[in-house]
User: What shape does this take?
Amino acid sequence: MNIASLNLRQAIMYKMQGSDSGAVQETITDAITSGQEKTLPGLGVLFEVLWQNSDTSARQEMVETIASHLPAQAEKPI
Assistant: This one.
């Protein structure tokens, strides 16, 4: 496999294909609780699926929820 031609979205969708809601929840929970940076792209792809399949009202609610839970100040990354 040529790493330069790896399509991360496609790989994550392939891995998640056929997953039921329980498996999706477990994947999300595991990714968040592990705290590993390598899980962030997968969460991003799942968020992209959610966003693309949400109406304007649901999108606005997501944006407001995220914005209201972001810290006013965060530590500068190293």
In short: The mean pLDDT is 93. The helical segments are 8-16, 21-34, 40-52, 56-69. The chain has four helices and no strands.
